[in-house]
Amino acid sequence: MTNEATSSVVAEVACPFCGLACDDLSVDTGGDALAVVAGGCPKAQAGFARMGVAHAGAGARIAGKAVSFEEAYAEVARRVKTSALPVFSGMALDVNGMRGVMDLADAAGGVVDHLYSEIGWRSTRVVQDIGYVTTTLAEVKNRADLIVLVGTDVVTKSSRFFERYVWNDEAMFEPAPSARRIVYLGGDLNTAPGRSPDGREPEVFDFDCSRMPEALSTLNALLAKQPVRDAAPLGIEIARWQALADALRAAKYSVLVWMAGDFQPSQVDLNINAIMAVVRTLNVSTRCNGLGLGGADGELNASMVHAWQTGYPMRTSFASGIPLYDPVHNGSARLIAEGETDTVVWVSALNDTKQPPAEACVVIAPPTLKLEREPEVFIPVSTPGVHHVGHFFRGDKGATLPLRALRATGLPSAATVAAAITAKLKEVSA
Amino acid sequence: MSVIKLTGGRVIDPANGVDDQVRDIYVKDGRIVASLADGDKVSAEYNVSGRIVMSGAIDMHTHIGGGKVNIAREMLPEDHRDDPVARTEITRSSCGYCAPGTLAAGYRYAEMGYTSCFEPAIIPMNARQAHMEMGDTPIVDTGGYAMLGSDDFLLRMLVAKEDQQTINDYVAWILHSTQTLGIKVVNPGGISAFKFNQRKLDVDEQNAYYGVTPRQILRTLSRAVHELGVPHPLHVHASNLGVAGNVDSTLATMDAAEGLPIHLTHIQFHSYGSEGDRKFSSGAARIAEAINRHKNVTADVGQVLFGQTVTASGDNMSQYRNSGLASPKKSAVMDIEMEAGCGVVPFKYKDQNFVNALQWAIGLEIFLMVDDPWRIFLTTDHPNGAPFTTYPHLIKLLTDRSFRNSMLDTINADAKAMSNLASLEREYSLYEIAIMTRAAPARILGLTDRGHLAPGAAADIVVYKEDADRERMFEKPELVFKDGELVVRDGKVVKVVRGNTHVVKPEFDRGIEKKIEPYFRQYHSVRMNNFKISDDELCECGGGSKLIPHACRKRS
Amino acid sequence: MSALVLTLRSAPAQRVDAGALNPTALAGMTPADVAALTLQVGKNVVRVDALFDLSGDDPGDIVFRGDCSRFERIGAGMKSGRVTVEGDAGGYVAQRMLGGEVIVTGSTGAFCASGMKGGRVEVRGNVGDYAGGAVPGDMKGMAGGLLLVAGNAGERLGDRMRRGQILVSGNAGDYCASRMIAGTIAVAGTVGAYPGYLMKRGTLILNALPVQMLPGMVDCGAHRLGFLSLLYASWKGLPGAFGALDASACTVRRFMGDMGATGRGEMLIRG
After folding, report:
1. pLDDT class for B109, splitting at 50, 70, 90?
2. What is the CATH number of domain B57-445?
3. A205 and A234 in contact (C-beta within 8 Å)?
4. If both were cysteines, with which of A18, A207, B52, B303 could B363 make a disulfide (CB 3.0 to 4.6 Å apart)?
5. pLDDT band, very low/low/confident/very high, at A430 (cuts 50, 70, 90)
């Protein structure tokens, strides 16, 4: 293990490779690739190793042929300018990258769509429909006495959840972290991290997660002191459901955790609605909060910037010159499938594994992205938190982390690229 | 070098005692100068004879950025549909009425002659987001107040009976780390109490876990802010927001400062009696009398104006309590990061609703019964009482008694009967409006180069065509200059500039970090060093805003 | 006067908001006025007569011909008159409609009759997801009037529906009557998973037990409900499966739910 005192190791690095944005990483910058030497997880290690290189020799291409960045910017500007409806998708970006794309998309009259927006809009719909009562990770760390994981194990997507926020040495308030009660609603989950440090097993309600509406319907009925039709909903005897309802009532600060991306897409907003019904019922007499996690690939960077600048969440069309929000119809996959867009621009600086859609004629991504097909324009970009500073919203919306520059590269950031294209676009206009 | 001359305007500049005097104003490189030097060539002259000239207006309490505001935006697509801002050659598209996008907010503020806006409720952990949003609010200068008082670090210090000096160091450290201009306390200790399932907390009631009272918190924080020499007094959102009868706790809150400077914000929402058949009455007379008597107290009103809006507050205890009143029926309440919380509740103030109508009257009563315009500020607590775009209407209510009385005649009759508004004859003069929207907020925030038009001041200048209809006059200035650049002409943005960020940097003992660092490591979700926002980073998240630090003169 | 017929020249590549082309908005206009109106197609603003050939002159009786599946909000907000789509229509047909009649001979996109307050919509093909449902930002879905669907409905039929009636002769998708607040939905065919999820009040009438039901839908046994005979009588003569019900056959198996969401919704299974 590298000694932290070694000058090439940078401590307290925030990680942009999942929604937890852990900021206790030590990263050795001495080698050809960045190496996480403390505080990481496999995803962090892989991300920093893969993208944490200098990208020597990478350059822009048009139709597979090397061109200058200026030529590439001009070509993208020309394409979005002449497009009837350009779509900017991917959006795995830091805050400034998203700001840059927003400027461009507005000028180009397009639509901006994150790679998780199909789940994201349904999740956002909950605040538009009923609102929520939620908490954030530091509160969970210090207060939670009963944590119910609803259809998610969290750790598959964000592996250090229990390590960092549940099984701590010490919490500020009672109970001691090791006494926390963990309940999983749903089967086929990795429940091992839910075992307490002293070996107490979590409680698991084992059922097919696609049947989550049945579980939430049962729980809400019992909390409302109403009957349910089945003697054993989801094959689990009613007494266990009743015991869970009673435990929630008795808890001082229970937390219901979900990850929208782990629900069936068509159930996302309804399931969160149902979770919120549980939370609101309980808050009449005690404290109970929801905790929606997510935020990988800069999902919240994109959604937050979009909302604060324009007022609307993503999937808003700027084509007419005023923002028009229609999350059902402005999804990039749908616009592509229906032939509504003729120009798909894929922008992704944080993710170099997700393939752009086949229709993407412009790809703006790290050169480590192994493209299955050559786009008409490729512009390589550096990665926030690796090559340049930036900002990253954590998945609970509780914090925004500063990202660091750990590795030099000659490549521009996505923000720089977007600004350059916007400038060219305005030249074309003028 | 650019040199601008505004010729022949009727200047109203209360900070310098200038009341409607015809003067020429010279601007050189973004600053007002007394006269031109030899060789200075006027690059642009504006004949503003007959026009009213004031400095740019300052909104000292407006929720324009940060987590809760963005929740409100996401929550309310129905708010945005009918209020689009169309893209132009120079401006971007945006939208929203009571929860506008930052772009819409910046353009609209500038178009109304506002050149500085301050976000009053920045949760320290959320300071980055607040600065990012303010950085994306074009044209206007911004700044914010960091929320303390329900943060566990402070409450633990109070329990541990740490000395005032140590607390001062922590408060100063927060100001530095969050790059803010002042300290706000919201429902002192109450946000923490709500996390322990307390549903109300009076000024002398103990937090169930810590045993600390709001009075202790107010006393400690007002002293800290004062001793650090932060120009802006402790900015207080008092206990019992919106509760009938809360006038008593508001008066107790004033007392808790023990004579030190204290600013009570959106005091209208804290000026309710519990008399009458409906156990809801105006406490405005008692509050105004107390403000008049306590020279250490300032207040902004938080005027209610009728229509749809959304309430967004750090006071999650109160907002949870109010969520049943939501219209439309949705609300978001959050506990946040062992520091604070927030609550977003859409609300429609109806002129035929007794309570809403009386709230409207109470706000106006306070405006008219507080004698000193230097100590009462024009706000709607945007968007809580109404969106900021209603300010011109509010100015008309204050300056035009017959208009005010004609409006009073249209509200709920029982509310009208409960109010003494009809008997209040006062009409604010333009000079007084300039005090409460320019000179006084600049003074109370310590913005020495804003809010006035003397040489050396930043050239944030507004030119109005005088109109007996003050609403029409103030909603559409003829010219607005920001740091010497013409940004608005005839009420429309003609140039987009980037505003500055105002901060204070009081002196303190950095040794406090020895206490803070392990606390973060043990209990927080981020490391201390990732919590702090450096000057460079601020400019980065502000998208390149210039940082303007204001002087603090230590008083301990 | 004869119906104002808008015959599509060729389908645009992007969705087009055609909400302005309704009898209320066009009242008093000549065909030339209508021809000169503009619509937004992607980034371009296009005259109506660049998209459609116009014939006839009665703006109170409008006919769309051709594949109008990219035209949204047809009949939106209209107060009276008639709009006929001879073919498919896009999303938001009759959104916030107040009165009059919309007939679609083909199928519609999503959110058909969303926020509709009055009048009648007849769809001879299928309706997409969220028919009679609330759009994001609306607190309620359909709030009055009648939606008749000869074919099938997609997911979330009547989501947050507040008032009015939806009669589907074919099948309905998953989460039918989700979060329903009031009103009546009847489905002659099958319904998908979890009808009545978070349903508060209102009535869902089915011909058969759903395959996947929520535990919070509680069986209250067989009942003879007098109001059904009045309801069936009011539907007499309507096209589709509900126009010829035996008004005396009003014994149903009654489920109440979703019990955790006030539980006053009823799901009635016809015997």
Report:
1. very high
2. 3.20.20
3. yes
4. B303
5. low
Contact partners, residue A144, CB within 8 Å, separation at least 6: A166, A180, A253, A254, A255
**Chain A contact probe: residue of B83, B93, B133 with most A CBs at under 10 A:** B93
Q: Is residue A266 scored above 90 in pLDDT?
A: yes
Chain B residues within an 8 Å CB radius of A313: 74, 77
pTM of the model as a whole: 0.98
- What share of chain A has pLDDT > 70, as a percent? 98
Nearest chain C residue to B327, by CA: C139
> Nearest-CA distance from B338 to chain A in Å?
6
Chain A residue with the nearest C-alpha to that of C128: A328
Q: For chain A, how long is the longest CA-to-CA vector?
A: 72
Residue A3 has pLDDT above 60, yes or no: no
At A2 the pLDDT is 44
Contact A109, C43 (CB under 8 A): yes
pLDDT digits (tens, 9 = 90+) for A418-429: 999 999 999 866
pLDDT tens digit sequence for B226-238:
999 999 999 999 9
Please say whether the beta carbons of B110 and B86 come within 8 A: no
Site from A136, A256, A429 to mutate, B interface, most B CB atoms within 10 angstroms = A136
Residues 6 or more apart from C45 whose CB is under 8 A from it?
A: C38, C39
Contact between B144 and B137 (Cβ < 8 Å): no
DSSP state of A121: H
Is the backbone of residue B527 left (phi > 0), alpha (psi -120 to 50) or beta? Answer: beta
Domain boundaries, chain B: 3-55+457-493, 57-445
pLDDT band of B545, cuts 50, 70, 90: confident
- Nearest 5°: CA angle at B140, between B135 and B141? 70
Interchain pair A128, C137: CB under 8 A: yes
Token pair belonging to B375: 């100590």
Single out the residue of A327, A342, A301, A400 nearest to residue A121, CA to CA. Answer: A327
The answer, yes or no, to whether residue C37 has pLDDT greater than 90, is yes
Taking each helix axis from N to C end, the angle separating B152-159 and B164-178, rounded to the nearest 10 degrees, works out to 170
The answer to whether residue B340 neighbours chain A at the CB level (below 8 Å) is no
Under the banding of pLDDT at 50, 70 and 90, the label for residue B60 is very high
| Mean predicted confidence (pLDDT) in B25-42 | 94
Confirm or reject contact between B86 and chain A (CB < 8 A).
yes
Residue ranges and CATH numbers for the domains of chain A are: 60-116+297-389+409-429 (3.40.50), 122-294 (3.40.228.10)
pLDDT tens for each residue of A80-129: 999 999 999 999 999 999 999 999 999 999 999 999 999 999 999 999 99
CA–CA separation, A274 and A268 (whole Å): 10
Largest CA distance in chain C: 62
C139 in contact with chain B, both atoms CB, cutoff 8 A? yes
Q: Distance between CA atoms of C163 and C145, rounded to whole angstroms?
A: 8
Nearest-neighbour CA in chain B from C208: distance (Å)? 35
* Residue of chain A whose Cα is closest to the Cα of B335: A135
- Work out the average pLDDT over B348-371: 98
3-class secondary-structure state, position A317: strand
Tokens 């440090």 correspond to: A197
Q: Do A340 and C257 touch (CB under 8 A)?
A: no
Facing residue for B75 by CB, picked from A128, A141, A308: A128
Which CATH class for the B3-55+457-493 domain?
mainly beta
The neighbours of chain B, by the rule of 3 or more Cβ pairs under 8 Å, are: A, C
Q: Of the candidates C136, C138, C139, which has its C-beta nearest B329's C-beta? A: C139
Look at residue A1 in the predicted model and tell me its pLDDT: 43
Å between A66 CA and nearest CA of chain B = 32
- Half-sphere CA count of B216, side-chain side, radius 13 A: 23
Tokens of A19: 């929604």
